[in-house]
Amino acid sequence: QVQLVESGGGLVQAGDSLRLSCAASGRTFSTYAMAWFRQAPGKDREFVSAIRRSRSTTYYADSVKGRFFISRDNVKNTVFLQMNSLKPEDTATYYCAARERDLTNYASDYNYWGQGTQVTVSS
Which residue among 66, 77, 84, 90 has the highest number of C-beta atoms inside a 10 angstrom radius? Predict the structure, then answer.
């Protein structure tokens, strides 16, 4: 089992950057595929990005491709989401998620979730 704690959210202006972190407990972090999802008020939770256990493969939603970058540090048990060129439509609560099998972009496939961190982008 793994526990996830996100940090790094905040209020920024359009065009700014933020770096989200997700710290995971447990000794088997490297065996989990990790992902970021987001949820805006009144909307469904949507996939943002995911990274394979080995760090060799990453996936992005089309809406963030080229602006957001996911990475992980299997020594520090942390996954990061570097968000550049932020837009008002990126405003949402961002959640970190983990699953023991290979990555997917479906929220229902992930077993473990953090509490979320709020990102607000003003125009």
Answer: 90
- Please check whether residue 83 is in contact with residue 90, taking contact to mean a CB–CB distance below 8 angstroms: yes
C-alpha distances (whole Å) from 16 to each of 9, 30, 31, 82, 121 are 12, 31, 33, 11, 8
CA-CA distance, 42 to 4, in Å (whole number)? 24
Cα distances from 94 to residues 30, 75, 87, in angstroms, run: 21, 23, 14
Pairwise CA distance, residues 66 & 78, whole Å = 22
pLDDT digits (tens, 9 = 90+) for 49-68: 999 987 679 999 999 999 99
Using DSSP's 3-state secondary structure scheme, residue 75 falls into coil
Q: What share of the chain is helix, strand, coil (3-state, %, to 5)?
A: 5, 50, 45
Please list, in sequence order, all residues whose beta carbon lies within 8 angstroms of the beta carbon of residue 89, skipping any fewer than 6 positions away.
63, 121
